Fold each of these.
Amino acid sequence: MSENKWIDPFSDNIIQRIDPKVRDSLTPAQLSAIKDAIRGPSKPIRPIDIRGIIPLYFARYFFVLLIGRDRRASIVMNEGVRRHKASWLNGLYFSLFIACPIIVILFLFVYVLKYIWGLDIIPDQHLGDILQ
């Protein structure tokens, strides 16, 4: 399945999860493109890139130490702008979700008060007549 010299277990694992009928219908170029999309850009060169495993009697722990220039700044900033817009929109939806029932209850309360006090705001017009 993998035509690359370097075997990527993560990409291969994801490819193996695809339905076998669909996976068999993919061309080698399509599989390679999918693996490249999963893998992302090639590994950036960092001055210090130390990775390892600490085996203990009861568990294994891994550690990663990466030191180098942060080249993700534009991605992080774009993501922050997108999250800010989404939070504003979510706040608007939440406000509408809370405000709509309150407004309906308020109108019903005012209508009941109008009915109890006998006020006739629009002469010869009643809510029952308008709804029919």
Amino acid sequence: MTPKQKQRFILVSLLVVGLGTGIGLVLMALNENINLFFTPSQVVAGEVPPDQRFRIGGMVTQGSVEKLDGELTVLFKLNDSVKEVQLKYTGILPDLFREEQGIVAEGKLNKEGVFIADQVLAKHDENYMPPEVEHALKVSGGDYYDDEVKE
């Protein structure tokens, strides 16, 4: 191998290693930021990957909202009219949060099966339901689903 060929080989090798490292870092960052969506039925069925952040959506169960005294912690149940999941959220809830209202929460499932939310999003008016929640309720055959709900 001539010195010129050797130099070219080293340059191409470094370029390939650098490109591979860059692609690997991008894929790793994308994988960490994937935000999966699950319904309460899917969570109860165990379809959620362990130790993974995800979003859960459904309707707040009537009579399930419980505020802990002296704290900003709220316990409530979320359902898709088939199954329900207990949620725990510490913080100020959106103004539009109430029972029998569609919400989407983001967080992780703990070992006891309670979803620990770090963000709760409520719908913004009476005609809107998050698309994921609307689809999940339609698929589950939930009695909350209304064909006239428009995005």
Amino acid sequence: MDKNLVKKFEKYQSKAKVYVEDKEKTRQLLKRATEKAEAKGPLEKIWDKLQLLFSLVKDWSAGNYRQIPVGSILTMLAGLLYFVSPIDAILDFIPGLGITDDAVVLGFVIKQMGSDLEKYRIWKSNEEN
């Protein structure tokens, strides 16, 4: 990720702390992110992992899954905050480009949280069986 994008993302990490404390805000954020993701576009490459991230945040906010460090949740929430924000590195209303930076940030978050997502996937699979 380029330095400008990293700097913008860091601002969202501090905002994410509010969401860790307020589960209803987290649920609303997740709803907005899920709705925005339906457009897919550049998100196709990370679609399955993004759905896993959504599921993890949903289970975490409902209190069903707690085997994740707070720092990891903060990073995931920051990524979702960046994603739903219409004003980020590339404004979302710019056709064809607006979601590109969002996909880069979400890809970065997914890569950084890979082991946490895998642990959750295993937990989720065991819960369903």
